[in-house]
From TrEMBL:
Name this polypeptide is given: Catalase
Top-level taxon of the source organism: Bacteria
Pfam families per UniProt: DUF5662
Organism, as annotated: Dorea phocaeensis
Length: 179
C-alpha cells in the first residue's frame, strides 16, 4: 500500500508544480518536473521509506547513512541548486554552487511552494516557504551561488508580502517577459 501512497504523493506534487509552471509560462519544465521520481532507483526507495509527513529520502539516509534516491535525483534535475555544485574555476575556492539559469531558479521557487503546501496542509500560508528557506539558508554557505540565493530570496519575500497571484504575474511578465 505504501507504493500507492507514494505514487499519489508524487503525482500530487507534480500536479501542483505543473499548475505553477504553466501560470508563469514554463510549460516544458512543468511537464518534465521531477520525472526521475518514476525511475526504479527513486521510486522503489520512495515506496520502501514512505513517510507521509516528510521526504522518504530522510528515512533512507537515517537507515543507510546516505540516500541513493536523492543522489540519483539531484544529479538529474536542474531545479535543485545541488545539481549545480561543481569545482570552481578559481582553484582556491574548491567546490561551490554555480549560478543557476533563471528559469530553474523559478522552478525551484515553485517546487518549494508545492512542498510547503503538501507538508503544511490546511495551515499553509504564503509566508511559509520564506520562513523555511531562511531557517536553513545560513547552513548552505557556498553550496548555493550568492546570485542564485539572492534571486530565490527575492521571490520568496515577494510571495510572503504580495501573495502567489501577484508574484506569478511578476515572474511571467517582468522576469521571463512572456505575454
Ligand atoms: Zn525535484
Amino acid at each position: 500500500m505504501k507504493a500507492l501512497q507514494h505514487l499519489r504523493t508524487i503525482n500530487h506534487h507534480k500536479w501542483l508544480v505543473m499548475k505553477g509552471c504553466f501560470k508563469v509560462g514554463l510549460y516544458r519544465q512543468g511537464l518534465m518536473h521531477d520525472l526521475s521520481k518514476y525511475s526504479p532507483t527513486e521510486f522503489l526507495v520512495g515506496c520502501r521509506y514512505y513517510q507521509g509527513t516528510r521526504s522518504p529520502n530522510n528515512a533512507e539516509r537515517e537507515s543507510t547513512g546516505y540516500s541513493k534516491a536523492w543522489l540519483h535525483h539531484k544529479g538529474r534535475n536542474r531545479h535543485h541548486y545541488e545539481y549545480w555544485i561543481d569545482y570552481s574555476v578559481n582553484p582556491g575556492e574548491g567546490i561551490v554552487g554555480q549560478k543557476m539559469p533563471t528559469r530553474y531558479v523559478i522552478e525551484m521557487f515553485i517546487d518549494r511552494i508545492a512542498a510547503s503546501k503538501t507538508y503544511q496542509g490546511e495551515n499553509y500560508k504564503d509566508t511559509h516557504p520564506l520562513a523555511y528557506y531562511e531557517q536553513g539558508a545560513a547552513k548552505l554557505g557556498r553550496m548555493i551561488h550568492p546570485d542564485t540565493a539572492k534571486q530565490l530570496h527575492f521571490l520568496l519575500t515577494m510571495l510572503a508580502e504580495k501573495g502567489e497571484e501577484e508574484t506569478f504575474a511578476y515572474i511571467r511578465h517582468k522576469i521571463l517577459q512572456k505575454n
